[in-house]
Every structure is written in C-alpha cells, then in structure tokens.
C-alpha cells in the first residue's frame, strides 16, 4: 500500500508496515515527462454527483489524487441544532437519499438511546424489513452503477433500476414517498403496514432471488468485468480498520465486523443470516460481497415477514409534541447499506439538540480514496470510486 | 469491558502526570466519557489503541462541540448594617464569566474484540487564541477527514495533522459556521441583480453613488 508523502504510515499502523502490493504497477518509462494535473469533476458522470478528484498523472499513472467536495454542503448539522428533534427527521432523508429508511432508523435509535424509549415488537420487525429492503435497493443500484462505470452503458443499470422501482413502489405505498420516506419515529414507526402491503413485500422477496440469479448470470462471471476489477484498488485489512472503513467495503477486505451482529440492535439476533467476507479487498470483492449480502438480506426478509407479530407500532410513553429529552448525550449507530451510520446527540434539556452530529459512512470511507488509486490509471480510479459507494448528499451534509 | 471509572484509574496509573477526568452522562444511554488533557492526548490514544485488553483499533466518530463563554450569576446572602443600626439580610448577585472552550469528542471501538464505545474528549483552553489540540490522525487514520471537518467548521487547529485544510467550505472562507456565535454574512447570497431582502442587505455594502446600490437603474438602457 502506498500512502501520501505527508502521511506517516508506520506510526498509523497498529501492526506491521504492509509490503508494496503486487497490484501497484510501476511505470517502466525512461522518458519521464512533466507531471500532469487533471481535475475530474465536479460535473462528471462518473463521480456520482458533484464531486471532484484532482489527479496528478505521470503518463497514465496516478501519482497523487486529492478528493475535493463540499459542493452540496448546506450545514445539515447546524440545521439540526436549530430544529426540534422530530423536525430533523425529514432532513435525515436527504443525507443518503437512496437509503432514507436506514437514515431514519439510525437517527431514531440515537434519540431513543438519549431519551430511553422502548420500541414495540411489531415496529422493530417493520424496521428490520425496511432496512433490509433498503439494503437490497442500495446494493442493486451500486451493482448497476459499477457496471456503468466499467463502460457497460445502460443495460445493467436499467435492469437494476427496474428492480429498484419495485422496492420504491412498496416504500411509496407505505410512507407516501418514494425516496424521502420520513417514516421512523422516536419509539416506533409512523404508519402501520396493512396485510396487503406485507403480502406485496413477501411477493417481492420471493422473486428477488430470481432477479439476482439473472443479473449474476450476466455479470458475475463476465470476463471483461473480472479483467477490469480484479486486483484493482486493493485495500488491506489493516488500513481498512485504521481508516475506519465500514460496511461492505470493510468486509470485502476480510474484516468480520457487521453491526447487525456486533451491536445486535433491533431484533437482528432473532434472525439467522451470514456475513459474507472478501479475500482480496479489490473492487471485484466489493461487488461480490454486496451481491452475497443481498442474498442474506432476502433470507432475513423472509424470516421477518413470516414472523411479524400484530400489535402497537408506537411506544405509549413516546411524545411527538413537546419532546424534550433530559440533559445528556448519546451516540447511536446502525449498519447502513454503505457502512456505519451514526448520530451523536447532546441534549441540554431544550426542544432542540445542543449538538447534532452525523457520522456519515460515505464521508469516512472516502479517506482512503487516494491510497486505493495510487499506481492505477484514470479509468481505474473511476471504478474504484464507484466501488466505495458514495452519495454526495451524505458526504457533504 | 471495563467501566469508564476503571479505565480512568488505569490511565492515571499508567500516565502519572496526565489529567484524566470522568465526565458522567446522566441520560439513559449512560455513555460516560473521559476528559483528557491535550498534552497527553496522543500518548493516551496510542495506549488505548495498542492495549491488550481494550484494543480500540477503530475510531468511529470524531467531532467538535462548541461551548461558548457563559455568564454565571451567583447569589450570595450578605448582612448589611443599615443607617439606623439594624441588620438586614440582602441577596447580592455577582456575575462572572466562565471561559468557554472548543471540545473534540472521539468515539472509539474495537473491531478485533468487538467492544466499545470508549468516549474520549479533549478541550482547548479557550475559543480565541489557544485553540490548538494534538491531532489523533497518526493514531487512527479515520480522523483525517473528520479532524479536517472540525478544523473547518469549528476552528480547532490540529497539531501534527498531515493535511490540515478546509474540507466542506471553500478555502477562502473566513469563519467557522458550526460555532454557536457564528453570524451569516450579509451578502452571502449576493447576486448580480439582487432583489427583496437580499437587495436591502447588499445595498449596505456599496456607496450610495454606486450603480450596484440601485441595480434596477443600472439595468435601464
């Protein structure tokens, strides 16, 4: 692994200094010319939003790469400090706008920790169901976008979006909105899903495996995809842990750390599922881990939709109006589709949080973008960025 | 996992000169934190990371909190002898300013041992000139962008950070928006053809004779 010049890798690494990986191609070129600085973005289709990479090239090889972002910055945290606790709930939809359901849950979890609220059994089941649907949706989109980044224009992405549409329809019929769901509440959920909704969810869960089979038959064994992604952007497990990488990206590097198992929040201990791990930590592993995670999500969904009990969906002690938690602080986190999404709240006893902090997985996962891209070509940097899976609404906040 | 009190005692034993204070958290979350003095912060962080029992190899969240200067009013009962010789008990109010600080909070977990969190806090001496704190990026790489964000939005200067630049705001920006006393600039939304409230605000910045002060006239042929 190559680190930036200014970065002291040995001091940073809890274990041994990693050897120079075989994936780093050296430039065998006796005609070294001047270095060329290329600015990719902010308006570039491969950067998944308004994001800029300032890459310094030696020939075609990247020798330095600095991510530049903040184009979508609206100081979400300041907005949160000037809004009531519940008033921030719709804002959290806009963080990672693909995964509003998990953002809602993470925020609700942090507030529930702060105020000591319990969640009824049915609501916990609904949360698990919606979070796993969100995971399916996010990973499906990522698989489509990654292929788009590799140059497979259109078709795989459209297949992915066709499936995503079905999940969005479910979200719409439940919460009234396709992407900005604003569904979770402190101590429960907003709307009780009908029996018809649950049947529709069961149908979707039942048929999703077929879509994955079809998609995988087209993509997973594809020779071009393998050539483009295997051995590209290798992330060592030591660097991944030190850099706080979370989610599928961490697990692709072989670190077994899934908050659904570690923190055992919600009702996840009740469900049987496995945590897929990668062996190489390259772009292909990151793709593969996500595909396998989708299959596990389908398993969890099947169990949750089978066992979901009847009952209330809100804690009777929870107050929607005039909600003022006692002074104190709490950090709540869940396993979002992109990694650990956490909310850190400090209450001074008022109706607004004194401090409202979002620990965004995309933001922290970007830390190692330069390390992954060094020694690769510009075309590779595009798929490396794609495999990190960022949403700029969350990075810039 | 050991409690925050036990960890504090262990740290005090290991680092005799260090000040480690327990900051208790009264909310149901009961996530108590340890306030560490800046001089020993990096040593303690390295110790926590490499410790056999804790192994806190993962810094999940690093963020700032602004605690502005506070005016504290204290009431003291005093006896005053009046002109006619009788004693009166009077409440005397004294005001004093408590200096605020900028605080950086780290949430540490262990991926290897699957435990946590240990919450570490470091505070600056004040909010104006003594705002330097040691960077923990050499200990946990995940602090790199998060400390840049704290520098950008709160104005804490991290000593030993490899690349301390603004990250969300642009480089030319002057203030620190997440501070509690931050005031938005008047001409923040200045447009070439201002209107409404923005026009009224923008007008203050230009002399009355300027064409920009009366932009509608400037547009006339």
Question: Would you kindly provide a written description of the structure presented here, covering whatever features stand out?
Answer:
The complex is a heterodimer of chains A (397) and B (221). By secondary structure, chain A is an alpha+beta fold. Chain A has a domain at 98-322: Cytochrome-c3 Hydrogenase, chain B. Helix content of chain A is 45%, strand content 13%. In chain A, the strands form four sheets. A three-stranded antiparallel sheet of chain A has the order 1-4-5. A three-stranded antiparallel sheet of chain A has the order 8-9-10. A two-stranded antiparallel ribbon of chain A has the order 2-3. In chain A, β8 (328-336) and β9 form a beta hairpin. Chain A starts with 8 loop residues before the first helix and ends with a helix. Chain B has 221 residues and is of the alpha/beta class. Chain B folds into two domains: 4-67 and 101-169, 2-Layer Sandwich (Beta Polymerase, domain 2), CATH 3.30.460.80; 184-221, no CATH class. Chain B contains five helices and nine strands. Chain B is flat and about 65 Å long. The termini of chain B are far apart. The interface between A and B is large, with 52 and 40 residues.
């Amino acid at each position: 692994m190559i680190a930036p010049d200014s970065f002291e890798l040995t001091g940073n690494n809890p274990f041994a200094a990693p050897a120079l990986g075989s994936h780093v191609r050296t430039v065998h070129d006796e005609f070294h010319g001047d270095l060329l600085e290329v600015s990719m973005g902010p308006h570039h289709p491969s950067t998944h939003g308004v994001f800029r990479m300032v890459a310094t090239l030696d020939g075609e090889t990247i020798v330095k790469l600095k991510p530049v972002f903040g184009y979508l910055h609206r100081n979400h945290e300041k907005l949160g400090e000037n809004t009531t606790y519940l008033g921030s709930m719709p804002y959290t939809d806009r963080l990672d706008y693909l995964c509003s359901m998990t953002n809602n849950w993470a925020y609700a979890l942090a507030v529930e920790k702060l105020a000591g609220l319990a969640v009824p059994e049915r609501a916990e089941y609904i949360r698990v169901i919606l979070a796993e649907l969100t995971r399916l949706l996010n990973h499906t989109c990522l698989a489509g976008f990654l292929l788009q980044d590799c140059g497979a224009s259109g078709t795989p992405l459209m297949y992915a979006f066709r499936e995503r549409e079905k999940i969005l329809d479910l979200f719409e019929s439940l919460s009234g909105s396709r992407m900005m769901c604003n569904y979770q509440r402190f101590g429960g959920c907003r709307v009780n899903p009908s029996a018809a909704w649950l049947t529709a969810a069961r149908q979707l869960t039942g048929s999703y495996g077929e879509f994955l089979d079809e998609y995988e038959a087209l993509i997973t064994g594809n020779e071009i995809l393998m050539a483009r992604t295997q051995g590209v952007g290798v992330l060592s497990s030591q660097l991944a842990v030190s850099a706080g990488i979370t989610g599928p990206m961490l697990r692709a590097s072989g670190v077994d750390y899934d908050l659904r198992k570690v923190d055992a929040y919600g009702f996840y201990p009740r469900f049987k599922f496995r945590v897929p791990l990668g062996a190489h930590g390259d772009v292909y592993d990151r793709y593969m881990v996500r595909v396998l995670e989708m299959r596990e999500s389908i398993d969890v969904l099947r169990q949750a939709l089978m066992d979901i009990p009847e009952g209330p969906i809100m804690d009777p002690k929870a107050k929607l109006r005039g909600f003022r938690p006692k002074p104190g602080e709490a950090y709540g986190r869940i396993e979002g589709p992109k990694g650990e999404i956490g909310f850190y709240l400090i209450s001074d006893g008022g109706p607004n949080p004194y401090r409202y902090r979002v620990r965004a997985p995309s933001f922290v996962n970007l830390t190692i973008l330069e390390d992954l891209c060094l020694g690769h070509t510009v075309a590779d940097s595009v798929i490396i960025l794609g495999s990190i899976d960022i949403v700029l609404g969350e990075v810039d906040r | 996992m050991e409690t925050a009190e036990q960890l504090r005692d262990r740290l005090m034993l290991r680092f005799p000169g260090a000040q480690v204070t327990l900051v208790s958290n009264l909310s149901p979350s009961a996530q108590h934190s340890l306030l560490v003095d800046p001089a020993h912060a990096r040593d303690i962080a390295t110790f926590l990371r490499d410790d056999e029992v804790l192994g806190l190899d993962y810094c999940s969240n690093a963020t700032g909190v602004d605690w502005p200067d506070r005016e504290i009013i204290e009431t003291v009962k005093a006896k005053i002898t009046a002109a006619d010789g009788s004693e009166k008990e009077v409440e005397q109010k004294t005001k004093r300013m408590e200096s605020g600080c900028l605080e950086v909070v780290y949430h540490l977990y262990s991926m290897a041992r699957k435990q946590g969190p240990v919450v570490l806090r470091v505070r600056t001496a004040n909010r104006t000139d003594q705002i330097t704190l040691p960077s923990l990026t050499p200990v946990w790489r995940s602090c790199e962008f998060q400390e840049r964000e704290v520098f950008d939005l709160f104005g804490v200067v991290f000593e030993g950070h490899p690349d301390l630049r603004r990250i969300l705001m642009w480089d030319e920006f002057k203030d620190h928006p997440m501070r509690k006393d931050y005031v938005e600039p008047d001409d923040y939304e200045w447009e070439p053809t201002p209107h409404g409230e923005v026009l009224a605000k923008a007008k203050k910045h230009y002399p009355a004779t300027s064409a920009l002060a009366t932009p509608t006239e400037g547009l006339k042929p």
